[in-house]
Specification:
single chain, 310 residues, alpha/beta, four-stranded parallel beta sheet, 16 helices, 15% strand, globular
Length: 310
């Protein structure tokens, strides 16, 4: 543990001297969100990474987000505060197994959620985020044979709202899988005036009781615009920090997981990033994200297609 260092002033000094930009996901801790140059969901982070003029991108999120930034800006140095900040959803879809799954189904086009490794993106026709998944799926002909991976919950949701019959890879996010339907219903009884808002990575029973379903950015926008004053937030609780900043007069209640000892649901990988690690990351310019050039050449095409369609 480093002492006697003003992390905020030092980070501000170094990012100016090094022409660095700090991008943070809504699931980061509040102190990192407040310090970041840009805070957003996966789509916004990808867009900023593609457009920034900075020499160094510090991605405060998880590993696949850093890879996406490197794929879009290969000439830039891309750093992440903790290299172990992975993603259970990305890890649920090993590239080798996914490649076998795809090759066994000739004639199918592949739609991959952004929460995947660069190697899986390289096997993909178009990447999507929860923000744009429905819009992009709708660009395919109705009779198109589609594979969607790796999130079965998001895939089921998109199938339901579009009438598609995409083949789904059997993966899931550990955070969104763990929400307790029973506890959400108990919260609803305690707060009958509250609206339940949920991310489409949640299981179907949770989505069934939700008043609004949307991406992280969509949930945030909805809480700003809704006349309601109380919300039960069924996604990673880090986004509540920004919700409270934008709507301080409203109440946001984190939906609990099945673990009875927890009142909210946090991504253990996202929380590996800390202010101290961010400081060290900028100071030492490590850990750095690298992507194999051959994989990057294939992976950039479906990401660029997503950005064009978005």
């Amino acid at each position: 543990m480093i002492s006697n260092v003003d992390f905020i002033s030092e980070i501000n000094r170094m990012r100016k001297e090094k022409n660095a930009v700090i991008l943070a996901h809504f699931y980061q801790t509040g102190d990192i969100q407040d310090l970041a140059d840009c805070v957003g969901d996966s789509l916004a982070l990808a867009q900023w990474a593609a457009e920034t003029s900075a020499d160094i991108i510090v991605l405060c999120g998880v590993h696949f987000m850093g890879e996406t930034a490197k794929i879009l800006s290969p000439e830039k140095k891309v750093l992440i505060p903790d290299l172990d900040a992975g993603c259970s959803l990305a890890e649920s879809c090993p590239a080798g197994e996914f490649e076998k799954f795809v090759k066994a189904r000739p004639g199918y086009q592949v739609i991959s959620y952004v929460n995947t490794t660069a190697a899986v993106k390289a096997l993909t026709d178009v990447v999507v985020t929860s923000t744009n998944a429905r819009k992009i799926v709708d660009t395919f002909p109705e009779d198109a044979k589609l594979i969607f991976g790796p999130d079965r919950n998001l895939g089921n949701y998109i199938n339901g709202v579009t009438g598609r019959r995409m083949l789904l890879w059997d993966g899931a996010c550990h955070v969104h899988e763990q929400f307790s339907l029973e506890k959400i219903l108990e919260l609803k009884k305690e707060h009958p005036e509250a609206e339940v808002i949920a991310h489409p990575e949640c299981k179907q029973p949770v989505l069934t009781i939700a008043d609004f379903i949307g991406s992280t950015a969509a949930l945030l926008k909805y809480t700003e615009q809704s006349p309601k004053a109380v919300f039960i937030v069924t996604t990673e609780s880090g986004v509540i920090h920004e919700m409270r900043k934008r709507s301080p007069q409203k109440q946001f209640i984190p939906a609990p997981p099945n673990d009875s000892t927890c009142a909210c649901n946090e991504c253990s990988f996202m929380r590996l990033n800390t202010m101290e690690k961010l400081y060290l990351c900028l100071r030492d310019e490590t850990p750095e994200i690298f992507v194999d050039p051959a994989i990057r050449e294939r992976a950039v095409k479906p990401i660029q297609r997503m950005l064009e369609l978005s």
